[in-house]
């Protein structure tokens, strides 16, 4: 066997290993969602969900207010992502293309703020929102998510903008474009991958959250899917079939979103990053 | 305002001579305001919701603040006592050491294994590469709660696949094994979960970065007899360095703050041997309702993290300029 | 192209966006039925109940009944999850509009009462049904410094659920009536079924402190005692240690449960068929028989007996779990809330809670509701001999710090001797119970 072939086999074997480690847990989750109770809680693992059942999915989807939870989660995540993009882009423009007093301080603050543990801020945030009557409101929670998302977004987008040579805009302006026009026509398309990266990050933060939503929201019709997922574990024990079915459903929007944007995120991050 | 600003404005004005005069001066007067206007919405949101709570957090750390104080809305000022209590407590130093080691392991494994996987991806055939990338994306997209659930289930005491596999492979004593009995084992599982979720991002990003590495240089080096490690160290890595640094810094910040994985995996009731700084802060605040002390721990955490990422932050500042 | 106007437009847009956000944030507190202002209009009252406590039918019935007295007002029941509930309660009580009525686990009441979150109901006690016959432990949980700060809601007590067929097969004719008999019965079961590596005669997860306390109390020990105004941890007393040693003896021989685990999974494990006895709440039978997680076929094979005392013929004192209903001190609808609480804790609906919900009602006068049910009557009987954890506002912190589970795990895994583990736990309990804030 030639050396090259040996290498090939080696690489493929390693690839299979990586594939196994990444995919098996996901398969296990999906399969468990389709298993019947006794098959889930069996000492000998049942590898295939046969005979299967849709009971777990039915119970997951049948939880009270499930559809409202879906609606709320989608609304909240979309609002957060879109507003974050807009605000972060504007702010990153300022931080990346203009010189002004306090710029260095701002950038340091953006990094420092990301180091603060979220959980430590729950009560102060609740009290701040309470003062303006925004607890148990979707607007309140969107604003809260925005504050956690913006620092990273501004910082990342600024990194992108800084790496795009100003000469491009200057050339456009010499040709008669305004500053704003140059931003819109030249800069914006080039930062698109960065915007996608920001969108992804915002999505993850909102979709992953449980604690903030749990503390800030109380009306049953205002809950989000994070809370719904946590409801499968009660003081009566954990309903594993339901958890797995619910988790599968919960992961689908995230997976879809990622598949759509994955290539753009990465290309953007590397292009922006390579030049430091 | 910097002179660069003035120069730019001047170069724009020249072609639009027809509008010169009144509009030019007005523009010059407005120009300095633009960055602030652009920043305004974002900063407003941040200040409104984050600013006050952050201020609150720091001021809480100097107060004695229990449940009674929380409901009454005011605490007792005790200066640095919370901090003195923390620094004087041997448990604090244990927790700090534990947090740093935990974060270091997570970051090290994520970056190390991520790099290996990125290199692997480069050496695979088209189909295999697509498959592995798809697998990585799927793992990356899993929400944290979902990932923790799956792994918790796989490591279950009685019904977990891992215990079953180990028993099948002949390891004694794993028939009914609680992985969280010994913190060492428990943390190994938690690190596994964290790295599993973080690695795809690093691997995929580095892989894209690798495409920037000039293949001819690597080929030339190999022809000259350089080993794989040398090629990596002298040719590949320098190109990857900037991305590597960003990823490492982000990973450090995120892994230092790990909370959910430990909290949920240990059923919301981790024992003291599993306390990291973030968990301890939460437990002091909400578990034993000593919000002042919890806040102080959080502040210490931020300062510590700042110290750890100091070099990168300084580099950032240098790049930003005066 | 009007250059200056364009740039200004951008700036204006940015500012407008900012203003819009602020406006949206501030404009939200318009009347969506909120209870802040003048009490002339229709009011909305918010109730927080924990998931799984009351059957939805009962809640609907209470609401309907309440509506008759308050036709113009609305009641909104919000179900909360137990996980991290204290965080949510802390935030809610600290804010400006907490829920009007809150269901609180009985071990949590003292903490919130001492911090001033709950309304003093001493004056209204006489208006509650059966208020002189309320279950002792529940009433204790609602009392702080002589004041009544909540109304008992329902209770849960524990007994031993067992598999009739297994005991029969092992030749045990009668259910144990003393601790010694329990020990020998378990050993007999182990020798009959012990070849099954997963079999447990007496399944006891290590962290199950609710089920460990009866052993401590039965031997004359306690968790903590009050000594001239201060609390003193008492788990290291000779009696407490004796009780824990007896428990350890039982666990060593006859339990293969996870010594590091808690009791949340025990019903599912029981349903797998490799367990003869567990210490459980009455409602756990429902989980065991649940078609999704358990085994409905076990229905005919299940029965219960009270945890026996070391004194033959008596039962060990059990921990009385349960919930109380409190009214927030900051509530703006005190009168509405009081009416609702009186209903749910009153005769009519407590009867329904017992018959429909299968829980133990809050009054001794209603304890015979399950007289016809051989299973539930066992649990009701044990409720009469029940004890509670120290009624200190800091008790919740002891629970949050996992003192008892950690101690039990040390003992059962033999990481520390009974003497050492109890000494450490007692010291910690003394510390936390007596701490200032």
Detailed description of the structure:
The complex is a heterotrimer of chains A (276), B (322) and C (437). By secondary structure, chain A is mostly helical. Chain A has helices at residues 3-34, 37-40, 55-61, 66-97, 103-114, 122-131, 138-163, 166-174, 179-208, 211-216, 225-230, 240-274, and strands spanning 233-234, 237-238. In chain A, strands 1-2 form a two-stranded antiparallel sheet. Chain A is flat, with a radius of gyration of 23 Å. Residues 272-276 of chain A have low confidence and may be disordered. Chain B is mainly α and 322 residues long. Chain B contains 16 helices and two strands. In chain B, helix 11 (215-223) packs across helix 12 (228-256) and helix 14 (277-287) runs antiparallel to helix 15 (291-308). Chain C is built from 17 helices and 16 strands. In chain C, helix 8 (209-218) packs across helix 9 (238-254). Chain C is globular, with a radius of gyration of 26 Å. The model of chain C is unreliable at 14-38 (pLDDT under 50). The chains are: A mainly alpha (276), B mainly alpha (322), C alpha/beta (437). Chains in contact: A-B, A-C, B-C. At the B-C interface, helix 2, helix 3, helix 4 and helix 14 of B face helix 1, helix 3 and helix 4 of C.
Oligomer: heterotrimer
| Beginning-to-end CA distance, first to last residue of chain A | 44 Å
The whole-number mean of residue pLDDT values of chain B reads: 82
**SSE order of chain A:** HHHHHHHHHHHEEH
The biggest sheet of chain A amounts to: 2 strands, antiparallel
- Tally of contiguous helical segments of chain A: 12
Poorly predicted runs of chain A are: 272-276
How large is the count of helical segments of chain B?
16
Mean pLDDT of chain A: 83
Q: Which class best fits the helix and strand makeup of chain A?
A: mainly alpha
| Helical residue percent band of chain B | over 70%
* CATH-level-2 architecture of chain B: Orthogonal Bundle
Supply the CATH class of the largest domain in chain A. Answer: Mainly Alpha
What is the name of the CATH class of chain B? Mainly Alpha
Unreliable stretches of chain B:
1-23
């Amino acid at each position: 066997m030639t050396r090259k072939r040996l290498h090939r086999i080696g690489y493929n074997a390693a690839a299979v290993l990586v594939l196994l480690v990444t995919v098996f847990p996901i398969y296990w989750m999906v399969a468990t969602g389709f298993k019947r109770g006794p098959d889930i809680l069996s000492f000998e693992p049942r590898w295939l969900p046969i005979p299967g059942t849709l009971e777990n999915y039915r119970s997951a989807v049948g939880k009270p207010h499930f559809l409202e939870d879906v609606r709320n989660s989608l609304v909240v995540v979309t609002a957060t992502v879109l507003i974050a993009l807009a605000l972060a882009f504007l702010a990153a423009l300022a931080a990346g293309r203009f010189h002004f007093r306090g710029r260095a301080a701002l950038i340091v603050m953006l990094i420092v703020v990301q180091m603060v543990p979220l959980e430590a801020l729950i009560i102060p945030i609740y009290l701040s929102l309470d003062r303006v009557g925004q607890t148990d409101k979707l607007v309140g929670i969107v604003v809260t998510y925005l504050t956690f998302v913006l620092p990273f977004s501004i910082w990342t987008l600024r990194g992108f903008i800084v790496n795009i040579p100003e000469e491009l805009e200057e050339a456009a302006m010499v040709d008669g474009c305004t500053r704003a026009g140059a931003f819109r026509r030249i800069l914006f398309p080039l930062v698109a991958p960065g915007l996608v990266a920001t969108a992804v990050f915002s999505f993850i933060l909102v979709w992953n959250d449980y604690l903030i939503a749990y503390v800030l929201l109380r009306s049953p019709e205002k809950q989000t899917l994070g809370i719904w997922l946590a409801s499968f574990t009660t003081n009566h024990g954990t309903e594993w079939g339901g958890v797995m079915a619910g988790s599968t459903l919960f992961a689908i929007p995230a997976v879809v979103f990622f598949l759509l944007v994955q290539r753009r995120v990465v290309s953007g991050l590397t292009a922006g990053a390579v030049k430091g | 305002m910097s002179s660069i600003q003035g120069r730019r404005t001047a170069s724009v004005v020249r072609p639009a001579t027809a509008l010169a005069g009144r509009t030019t001066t007005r523009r010059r007067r407005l120009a300095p305001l633009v960055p602030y206007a652009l920043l305004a919405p974002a900063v407003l949101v941040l200040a409104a919701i984050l600013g006050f709570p952050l201020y609150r957090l720091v001021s809480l750390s100097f107060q004695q603040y229990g449940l009674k104080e929380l409901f009454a809305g005011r605490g007792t000022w005790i200066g640095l006592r919370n901090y003195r209590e923390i620094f004087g407590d041997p448990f604090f130093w244990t927790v700090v050491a534990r947090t740093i080691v935990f974060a270091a392991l997570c970051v090290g494994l994520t970056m190390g294994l991520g790099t290996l996987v990125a290199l692997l991806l480069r050496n695979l055939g088209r189909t295999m590469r697509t498959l592995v990338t798809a697998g990585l994306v799927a793992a990356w997209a899993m929400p944290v709660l979902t990932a923790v659930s799956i792994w918790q289930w796989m490591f279950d005491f009685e019904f977990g696949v891992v215990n079953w596999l180990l028993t099948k492979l002949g390891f004694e004593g794993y028939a009914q094994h609680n992985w969280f009995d010994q913190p060492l084992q428990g943390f190994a599982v938690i690190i596994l979960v964290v790295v599993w979720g973080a690695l795809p991002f690093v691997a995929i990003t580095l892989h894209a970065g690798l495409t920037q590495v000039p293949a001819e240089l690597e080929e030339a080096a190999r022809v000259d007899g350089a080993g794989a490690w040398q090629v990596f160290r002298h040719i590949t890595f320098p190109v990857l360095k900037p991305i590597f640094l960003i990823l490492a810094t982000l990973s450090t910040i995120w892994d230092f703050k790990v909370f959910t994985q430990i909290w949920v995996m240990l059923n919301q009731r981790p024992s003291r041997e599993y306390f990291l700084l973030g968990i301890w802060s939460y437990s002091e605040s909400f578990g034993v309702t000593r919000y002042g002390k919890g806040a102080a721990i959080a502040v210490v955490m931020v300062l510590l993290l700042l110290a750890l990422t100091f070099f990168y932050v300084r580099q950032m500042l240098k790049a930003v300029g005066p | 192209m009007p250059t200056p106007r364009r740039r200004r437009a951008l700036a204006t847009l940015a500012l407008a966006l900012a203003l819009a956000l602020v406006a949206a944030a501030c404009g939200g507190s318009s009347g969506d039925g909120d209870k802040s202002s003048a009490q002339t209009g229709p009011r909305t009252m918010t109730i927080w109940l924990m998931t799984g406590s009351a059957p939805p039918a009962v809640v609907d019935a209470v609401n309907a009944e309440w509506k008759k007295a308050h036709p113009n007002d609305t009641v909104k029941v919000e179900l909360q999850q137990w996980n991290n509930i204290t965080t949510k309660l802390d935030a809610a009580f600290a804010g400006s509009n907490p829920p009007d009525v809150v269901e609180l686990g009985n071990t949590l009441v003292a903490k919130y009462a001492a911090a001033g979150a709950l309304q003093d109901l001493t004056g209204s006690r006489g208006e509650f049904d059966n208020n002189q016959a309320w279950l002792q432990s529940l009433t204790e949980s609602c009392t702080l410094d002589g004041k009544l700060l909540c109304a008992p809601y329902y209770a849960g007590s524990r007994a031993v659920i067992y598999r009739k067929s297994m005991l029969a097969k092992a030749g045990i004719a009668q259910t144990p009536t003393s601790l010694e008999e329990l020990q020998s019965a378990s050993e007999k079961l182990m020798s009959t079924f012990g070849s099954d590596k997963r079999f447990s005669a007496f399944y006891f997860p290590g962290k199950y402190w609710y089920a460990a306390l009866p052993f401590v109390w039965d031997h004359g020990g306690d968790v903590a005692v009050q000594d001239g105004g201060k609390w003193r941890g008492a788990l290291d007393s000779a009696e407490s240690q004796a009780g824990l040693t007896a428990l350890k003896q039982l666990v060593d021989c006859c339990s293969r449960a996870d010594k590091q685990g808690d009791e949340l999974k025990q019903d599912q494990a029981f349903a797998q068929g490799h367990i003869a006895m567990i210490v459980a709440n009455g409602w756990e039978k429902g989980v065991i028989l649940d078609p999704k997680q358990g085994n409905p076929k076990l229905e005919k094979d299940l029965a219960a007996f009270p945890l026996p005392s070391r004194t033959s013929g008596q039962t060990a004192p059990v921990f009385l779990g349960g919930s109380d209903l409190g009214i927030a001190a900051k509530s703006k609808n005190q009168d509405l809330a009081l009416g609702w609480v009186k209903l749910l804790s009153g005769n009519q609906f407590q009867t329904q809670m017992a018959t429909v919900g299968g829980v133990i009602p809050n009054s001794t006068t209603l304890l015979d509701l399950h007289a016809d049910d051989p299973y539930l009557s066992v649990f009701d009987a044990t409720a009469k001999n029940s004890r509670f954890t120290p009624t200190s506002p800091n008790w919740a912190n002891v629970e949050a710090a996992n003192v008892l589970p950690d101690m039990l795990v040390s003992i059962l895994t033999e990481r520390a001797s009974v003497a050492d583990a109890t000494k450490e736990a007692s010291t910690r309990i003394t510390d936390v119970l007596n701490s200032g804030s």
